[in-house]
Amino acid sequence: MSSKVISLLICLFILHLLAAGSVAGCKIGIYEIKKGDFSVKITNYGARIISVFLPNKHGKIDDVVLGYDTIKEYMNETRYFGALLGRVVNRIGGAQFTLNGTVYKLVPNEGNNTIHGGPKGFSFVVWKVSEYVQDGPCPHITLTYHSADGEEGFPGDVLVSVTYALKDPYKLSVEFKAKALNKATPINLSHHPYWNLGGHNSGDVLSQVVQIFASHITPVDEQLIPTGKISLIKNTPYDFLKPRKVGSRIDKVQIGYDRNYVLDSNEKMKPVAVVYDQKSGRVMDIQATAPCVHFYTANWIINVKGKGGFVYQPHSALSLETQGYPDAVNHPNFPSTIVNPGKTYAHSVLYTFSIKKY
């Protein structure tokens, strides 16, 4: 039997599993957590947030994250809509790093580099639903995953969990945890909701106002790999210390924003960013325990057919991915993202939504 025929049979088998709604014996589902007129839908495929429903200043409920109508579409995409990102978020230059004298070669999935954990990173695996409470005083869902030694080239077994919970009033809490079981390994988790506070089908976010509590970024080379420098951004197009519209200077940064910001605060739970959409009145305030946030304006979302058939275009959303320093494994001057055996990684994010009616 030729290799082409074997490859075809493997593809057909995978498609059969996808159509059946299960992979490796784990059932794939959609789970809603709800508190009044505030609700979030999550799938255990990639531990993704697939919808966030919120009222606007007139009481109209809208879904404020981009996404698809079916789980199968999430399986076939490379844009990471709503996905949990790991074992290491962002890019690792050259798809390799050295740890304790051993060179680890990863699976590249963006040119010669690795992004968001590789082609079979945490965004493209089925997570176990460990706990699920749909409503009541504290609606929440906890998803868990065992990442095996050698997965995508990373060393050591890691037990990972994420808990999404709704809290009063209009608060979404995200708690990431990961324990290294038997080898030192880099762990840097985040997730990738594409936010549009006007509603996922409301067009671009260029008129939405953003404030990012950071005075520095980590500059990158032509492949978007950090150079190792940490640069001041005052009076540059990257400066969002004061609230300003996303589109106010976006034409001065090539195709849009795609940079890691180093947060100013040294507090454990630190202010990250505030986003405001004047038309809907919705406000999103983000706090996190991570030292950085990656600001991305959906530059490569081009003619993407999303929910309800709406076609998403560049700048139709923004992402604010809280994280550790990117490519820290290859830059000794960056704070380490290595977790030693028996130690636990933790990262908390709190989204607080509100309304401005004026």
TrEMBL record:
PROSITE patterns the record matches: PROKAR_LIPOPROTEIN
Gene3D superfamilies named in the record: 2.70.98.10
Entries under InterPro entries matching the protein: Aldose_1-epimerase, Aldose_1/G6P_1-epimerase, Gal_mutarotase_sf_dom, Galactose_mutarotase-like, GH-type_carb-bd
Keywords, ordered alphabetically: Carbohydrate metabolism, Isomerase, Signal
Associated pathway: Carbohydrate metabolism; hexose metabolism
Presence of keyword Isomerase: yes
Catalyzed reactions: alpha-D-glucose = beta-D-glucose
The protein's enzyme class: isomerase
EC number: 5.1.3.3
Highest taxon, organism lineage: Eukaryota
One Pfam family here: Aldose_epim
Cross-referenced CDD domains: galactose_mutarotase_like
Signal peptide limits: 1-25
Family the entry assigns: Belongs to the aldose epimerase family.
Protein name in UniProt: Aldose 1-epimerase
